[in-house]
Amino acid sequence: MNGDLIELSLGQLGVATTLIVASALLSIVLRLGLHGRLLWASLRCVVQLLLIGMVLKWVFAPDRAWYVIFSLAMAMTVIAGVVAMGRGERRYPGMGLDSVVAIWACSWLVTGVALAAVVRPDPWYRAQYAIPMLGMILHNTLNGVSLGLNRFCGEMAQRRTEIETLLALGATRWEAAREIVQQSIRTGLIPTINAMTVMGIVSLPGMMTGQLLSGVDPNMAVRYQVAIMFFIAAASTLGTAGVVLLGYRRLFNADHQFLPDRLAAK
């Protein structure tokens, strides 16, 4: 297999751009009202990728200090936590902190295990491995946390009467909220489970595709993809469970009283 990567010229990227323009024209013809958003999203995508490309080229330098890598990883984590919170329809005091803490704890734990015990680059925090792996784990954990939080807050608001009735009949706060907590965690894990179920049959994931395009042996690409999917599944499970449980603790007090007034519409 030829390991040479085929480089793309600006002209070739221009061909890809025409497809976005065609999609925007279709939106105009069908009066979907999406052409502006589509073109703006495309522009943002290009600018953001160009900027991160320059940043990564600098961060990936062999002599780059560990604290530079750490700072970039922390910025990525905080942004992921804020974005996860912002997608929900309801809020409660401390939701932003819960989201950041849950995503930070699970993604850094899983990434640390991946780097130190599985991939084992030298040094273990080597940016070429640490940043892309953390990015993939953060992205998927963000989705799980966002879905779990949205389901949890929605169910807690809609089922207020049921929860208060259970508490009045002598149930503990956990007994009153357990079903909602379980449903919320399941909801957060649906995308990851679905992706793992069809992987290799319906789709070839991004990491594996990138390695194949760069000439990596398919068997090695498969090994990396299996490992990263297991990392993603573990982080999504821990992150979704963590943020839902933190939210549960904020919406009940130590006397097993429900505090629905803390929930507010976005």
Structure characterization notes:
The protein is an all-alpha fold and 266 residues long. It folds into two domains: 9-59, no CATH class; 64-265, no CATH class. It contains nine helices and two strands; from the N terminus they run αααβααααααβ. The chain has helices at residues 10-29, 35-59, 66-86, 95-119, 127-158, 160-168, 173-198, 206-213, 218-250, and strands at 90-91, 264-265. Strands 1-2 form a two-stranded antiparallel sheet. The radius of gyration is 22 Å and the shape is globular. The model has no long low-confidence stretch (mean pLDDT 90).
Our count of helices gives 9
Number of strands: 2
Strand fraction: under 5%
Summed up, the domain count is 2
Runs in which pLDDT lies below 50 for 5 or more consecutive residues are none
Overall, the morphology is: globular
Q: What is the string of helix and strand elements?
A: HHHEHHHHHHE
User: Major sheet: size, sense and barrel closure?
Assistant: 2 strands, antiparallel
Mean pLDDT: 90
From the helix content, strand content and strand pairing, which structural class follows? Answer: mainly alpha
- What distance separates the N and C termini? 53 Å
Estimated helix fraction = over 70%
What's the arrangement of strands in the largest beta sheet?
A: 1-2
User: What integer value in Å does the Rg equal?
Assistant: 22 Å
